[in-house]
Design a protein that fits this description.
By secondary structure, the protein is α/β, with parallel strands linked by helices. The protein folds into 2 domains: about 10-205, 2-enoyl-CoA Hydratase, Chain A, domain 1, CATH 3.90.226; about 210-280. The chain is about 50% helix and about 15% strand. The strands form 2 sheets. A 6-stranded mixed beta sheet has the order 1-2-3-5-7-10. A 4-stranded mixed beta sheet has the order 4-6-8-9.
Length: about 280
């Protein structure tokens, strides 16, 4: 699979990890060219089991992804439409496609991520931000609109109603440490540590079977919207999808044949053991 001919970012594949680097001067604006690139990237990733993790980062030391291009809204109707008439926006459709990728997605944020840029980060599975460099904001209320790239919806699910409304209605910058406290990112990290940490995490996840990664994602996402009984059914459903497509049963047989689970040494060493059994197909 070739990952070239993009205009707003570059893609490098290494050891099952796609490193997507936004590079769209001057400010990585989130316009139609970027959405078209992201849509094409998703189309490729959806059918590429060799890629297991996607890391999004920026070549610009000051900006991760800027807000959505104001061109999006200039041609919108000033007349309200009914619920029956409304259709999803291009930004919503593309970011939802990114969210549903079978790969694990990580946003490595080392600069501004405001408006649509913040919404893009929220559409990723995991987010890590550099202290003293990353800044977040939803400014849409001040323009007379609202976050419309999934920001309101995803943020409420991520951090709860009160905090989501504080961020959306306050329309103020908040830094990496505040984002960690809110829960909009996984961790705030020192600038010299974020790169090695994300690389190590991405490379570790890329060791696992691609079908298992996808099954884990689908189960966790389903749990957000479903009652517990239905969520548990989803767990069972995706378990069978995984066992039918991965070496899981072979690995369980190996564990039984070698009495592995009753070995106290193995109980102490699960973090390393789970890596070593990847050779068992």
């Amino acid at each position: 699979m070739k990952y070239d001919h993009f205009t707003t970012f570059t893609v490098e594949i290494k050891a099952g990890v796609a490193w997507v680097t936004f590079d769209y001067p001057p400010v990585n604006i989130q316009g139609l060219p970027m959405l078209a690139d992201l849509d094409m990237l998703a189309q490729k990733l959806e059918v590429d089991p060799a890629v297991k993790v996607v890391v999004f980062q920026s070549a610009n030391p000051e900006i991760f992804v800027a807000h959505a291009d104001t061109e999006f809204l200039k041609d919108m109707s000033a007349k309200a439409v009914s619920r029956e008439e409304v259709k999803l926006l291009d930004l919503q459709v593309v970011l939802e496609r990114i969210s549903k990728l079978p790969q694990a997605t990580i946003a490595k944020i080392e600069g501004y991520a405001r408006g649509g840029g913040h919404e893009f980060a929220l559409a990723c599975d995991m987010r890590f931000a550099a202290r003293g460099k990353a800044k977040f904001m939803q400014m849409e209320v001040g323009m007379g609109i609202l976050p419309c790239g999934g920001g309101a919806s995803r943020m409420a699910r991520q951090i709860g109603l009160g905090r989501a409304l504080e961020i959306i209605l306050g329309a103020q910058d908040f830094d990496a440490d505040q984002a960690e406290a809110y829960g909009t990112i996984n961790r705030a990290m020192d600038p010299d540590k974020i790169g090695p940490f994300v690389e190590a995490l991405a490379n570790r996840i890329a060791l696992w079977p691609s079908e298992s990664i996808n099954a884990c994602k689908q189960t966790v996402y389903a749990s957000i919207d479903l009652p517990i009984k239905e969520a548990l059914k989803e767990e069972a459903y995706w378990l069978y999808q995984a066992t039918s497509q991965t070496p899981a049963l072979t690995r369980f047989k190996w564990a039984d044949d070698n009495n592995a689970q009753f070995d106290m040494h193995n109980q102490h060493a699960w973090e390393r053991l789970v890596v070593s059994i990847q050779d068992i197909k």
